[in-house]
Amino acid sequence: MTDTIRHVFFDLDHTLWDFEKNSGLTFDFIFKKHNVGIGLPEFLEVYEPINFKYWKLYREERIDKPNLRYGRLKDAFDALHFEVSDNLIHNLSEDYIKHLGDYNHLFDGTEDILKYLQDKYTLHIITNGFEEIQEKKMTTSNIRHYFKTVTNSEMVGVKKPNPKIFNFALDLANAKTHESIMIGDNLEADIQGAANVGMKTILFDYTKKYDNASYDKINKLSALAQYL
């Protein structure tokens, strides 16, 4: 693999940037700010699968960004039978986006593997996350300088796994498919999407939920050194 690869593309959330940890810290902050009297662990247990469901709908172009931001909170509070006004939901939604990038927790080994790879390859990001916050996440966590290009779904008008976003990212990076590899945590969006345009792939299966996946996969970022 190392004989042909020149460009390494990463997903950001759930791959390098520890989304769940940073998201939990953000909710803790905004719940205290708005005096939301609900237990954080109880809320997150319900919210996280709902958020995953809404992101799938968003990825499939079945809902827009405002409906994602509102609906995931509304459904979580409803599931917990916790009454909140629409106005509070909108305020929480805005503050969540405003402060999410304030936190900088990365997965173990992120900086070490990026330092290792930057001397051998050109590094890039392809993300479905909201454009206004992804740059802030990378800057706050001090990893932005590792990446030559950052492709965001809002720049392209489609989301992974749509082939258009991968082709856009390849063109932006001046990279060929046969010399490029995609690393991400989502089997459908990152891995199958990249494979469909001819890129090599490595699945970051840190939750070990893809036991039957036929793609190359790792459970820790440090294991990338075995492939690259």
Please outline the major beta sheet.
6 strands, parallel
Radius of gyration: 18 Å
**Which second-level CATH architecture of the largest domain applies?**
3-Layer(aba) Sandwich
Low-confidence stretches: none
The level of helicity is 40-55%
Let me know the average pLDDT.
96
Total of DSSP H or I helical runs spanning 4+ residues: 9
The count of β-strands is: 6
The ordered H/E elements are: EHHHHHEHEHHEHEE
Shape: elongated
Kindly report the oligomeric state of this protein: single chain
User: How are the strands of the biggest sheet laid out side by side?
Assistant: 3-2-1-4-5-6
Tell me the strand percentage band.
5-15%
Q: How far apart lie the N and C ends? A: 7 Å
Enzyme class: hydrolase
InterPro entries: HAD-like_sf, HAD-SF_hydro_IA, HAD-SF_hydro_IA_YjjG/PynA, HAD_2, HAD_sf, PGP-like_dom2, Pyrimidine_5'-ntase_YjjG
Pfam families: HAD_2
Organism: Winogradskyella maritima
Provide the fold topology.
Blueprint (H helix, E strand, L loop, with lengths): L6 E4 L8 H15 L6 H20 L5 H15 L6 H15 L9 H9 L3 E6 L3 H10 L6 E6 H4 L6 H11 L6 E5 L2 H10 L3 E5 L12 E2 L10
Parallel strand pairs: 1-2, 1-4, 2-3, 4-5, 5-6
Helix pairs in contact: 1-4, 2-3, 3-4
